[in-house]
Specification:
Radius of gyration: 45 Å
Strand order of the largest sheet: 3-2-1-6-5-4
CATH topology of the largest domain: Phosphatase 2c, domain 1
CATH superfamily of the largest domain: PPM-type phosphatase domain
Shape: rod-shaped
Helix content: 40-55%
Number of helices: 14
CATH architecture of the largest domain: 4-Layer Sandwich
CATH class of the largest domain: Alpha Beta
Structural class: alpha+beta
Number of strands: 22
Length: 569
């Protein structure tokens, strides 16, 4: 072969090499390679694939084939390094290429590494690829391999720089948001900032933010028509360890049902919000305005955003709870003061009787009350009561009962009539609510040692006779405050002889529990009183309270303990 002929044959290769190596634009290089080779080989269909991660190859350029294949990724488990006759292969990727009417696949090498593939269809003239054709094809793809590799590397550098710029921007955004989120302790403000970030920074069309409340996830903020439709999927999503797309969740058996429901509702990703590895909330998001699918970098950003927000949310909750706790403590202080002011500062002296009383508040404020009032002559009013519930409402209701007793007890009307009026006042104050008062009161005539009384649903006071016999003062009627008086209260009378003991108490005494949940009980109370029956009223009181304390053995009690003891001397 003459040198002139060799030069003529090599000249097109030099020109081809010069063209493809003069550019770093991957699309231009691939298009030039494909057009040149298809022209040389008289081929009507062609494709170029470039290498991605591992064994992934992406369709980058096609001619004579549907553009819908561009962007498709093929996985070649064992990438071939030699010419491949596609119709002889049974691989899935080969079947796909054959369906696009490609016959030949040629590896594109650079420094002995595969950087891509060239796919060719049948030649227009029907001729087979000869040995010279194969040699020319090998030369052309070898000349383009280096240019394709450089373009791929440059593309990766550009992608890395873009990702780096994006990460810097995201970090700056997260820094700014962190400063805003932590600038206050307002839960609503935190939720607003999170919502603005989802819509403004991420470009989310629809979203829902769920937060844990009393052990369950509840919708706290949303932009969707029916946020309650998500309630059924929350339990199955609480085990998520990282942000995931709904399509990824479909691959996990435990998440298929909620993932299918989320896809039906138009959502594309779920972001758990963790505090100490526990799911405290979820961000469920729909498609973005730009309709670009969520990538791994997007999910990482959303996860960082969500977990930064949940820390601020938990701080806001703790702050709010601290304020509520302080309010509760202030309320309890007020209630304790009200309750303390209801009790008599000093007990009056009653001729012929020894008297002692005590009120021990529980750690929560209750509504226990006792009173001893001088009436006309040698008459004295003795009362004890217990309001249902705790706190200021209970103390206020008992204050009303005390005011009513002090206003009405001097009346010449019978105890039955006075009790009926007190009940009507209590019913009006409670307005049909669930508050009520168990109440016992009576008028003691010290001269005749006679006690007239009415029991409005209270624990029946005990009269322990010198003989050891026990009487219960249970005549009366309905507890105060439930219903207006329709049936008159029954009035009882009892005479206290020398040595007899009258004990008025609230259920905090008989129901005081030990660590095993066992009540002190009325039987134990009687046993203690019988054992101490020769003691003074103060001795009886102290002995009874000591027995209750020993029984409870430092177990916290949920109710006040109130006792009033009257001993006939």
């Amino acid at each position: 072969m003459s040198s002139r002929r060799v030069t003529l044959e090599l000249q097109p290769l030099f020109e081809f090499s010069k063209v493809v190596n003069s550019s770093l634009d991957l699309e231009f290089i691939l298009a030039t390679v494909l057009r040149t080779i298809m022209g040389k080989m008289l081929v009507g269909k062609g494709m170029v694939l470039s290498r991605g991660d591992g064994t992934q190859f992406r369709v980058r350029f096609v001619r004579g084939i549907s553009d819908g294949l561009v962007g498709t990724t093929l996985r070649l488990a064992r990438p071939p390094r030699t010419f491949v006759h596609l119709r002889r292969r049974k691989d899935d990727w080969a079947t796909l290429l054959v369906s696009s009417e490609l016959d030949l696949l040629i590896p594109i090498l650079s420094r002995n590494a595969i950087v891509g593939y060239l796919g060719l269809g049948r030649r227009l003239n029907g001729a087979r690829y000869s040995a010279n054709d194969r040699a020319l094809l090998r030369s052309l793809v070898d000349l383009s391999g280096s240019a394709i590799e450089k373009a791929l590397i440059l593309g990766q550098v550009h992608d890395a720089n873009r990702n780096l710029d994006r990460k810097v921007q995201e970090l700056n955004t997260l820094f700014d948001l962190s400063r805003e989120l932590n600038s206050g302790l307002d839960l609503d403000k935190v939720l607003r900032l999170l919502s603005f970030s989802l819509m403004g920074q991420v470009g989310v069309r629809q979203y829902a933010v769920a937060l844990e409340r009393d052990g369950k996830l509840e919708i706290a903020a949303s932009r969707m028509e029916d946020p309650e439709a998500l309630r059924a999927v929350f339990p199955d999503l609480c085990t998520l360890k990282r942000a995931s797309t709904t399509q990824e969740l479909l691959k996990h058996r435990d998440c298929r049902r909620p993932a299918g429901e989320l896809i039906r509702l138009g959502f594309e990703a779920v972001v758990p919000m963790h505090v100490q590895q526990k799911t405290k909330g979820l961000i469920i998001i729909g498609p973005r305005i730009r309709t670009v699918p969520y990538g791994q970098a997007d999910l990482e950003y959303l996860y960082a955003l969500g977990n930064m927000a949940i820390v601020s949310i938990e701080n806001a909750r703790l702050f709010r709870d601290a304020i509520e706790m302080q309010k509760l403590e202030d309320e309890l202080m007020i209630a304790q003061e009200i309750q303390r002011d209801l009790l008599p500062e000093r007990l009056p002296e009653i001729p012929g009787f020894d008297i002692a009383a005590s009120n021990i508040p529980s750690k929560q404020v209750g509504g226990d009350y006792y009173d001893v009032l001088a009436r006309k002559g040698n008459e004295f009013v003795i009362a004890i009561g217990d309001v249902s519930g705790k706190g200021v409402p209970a103390a206020l209701l008992m204050a009303n009962a005390q005011a009513a007793l002090r206003a009405l007890s001097p009346s010449a009307d019978s105890l039955s009539e006075i009790t009926g009026r007190m009940n009507d006042l209590a019913a009006a104050n409670t307005r049909g609510g669930n508050k009520f008062i168990t109440f016992f009161w009576g008028v003691l005539d010290a001269s005749s040692r006679t006690l007239q009384y009415v029991n409005a649903g209270h624990n029946p006071p005990i009269v322990l006779r010198t003989s050891g016999a026990v009487e219960y003062l249970d005549k009366g009627g309905l507890i105060l405050g439930v219903l207006p008086t329709r049936t008159p209260y029954e009035q009882g009378t009892v005479r206290l002889e020398r040595g007899d003991i009258l004990v008025l108490y609230t259920d905090g005494v008989s129901e005081a529990m030990n660590a095993g949940g066992e009540d002190f009980s009325e039987e134990r109370m009687l046993e203690v009183l019988r054992h101490l029956r020769t003691e003074s009223a103060s001795g009886l009181l102290n002995g009874l309270l000591s027995a209750v304390d020993q029984h409870a053995a430092s177990t916290p009690q949920s109710d006040d303990i109130t006792v009033l003891i009257l001993r006939a001397t």
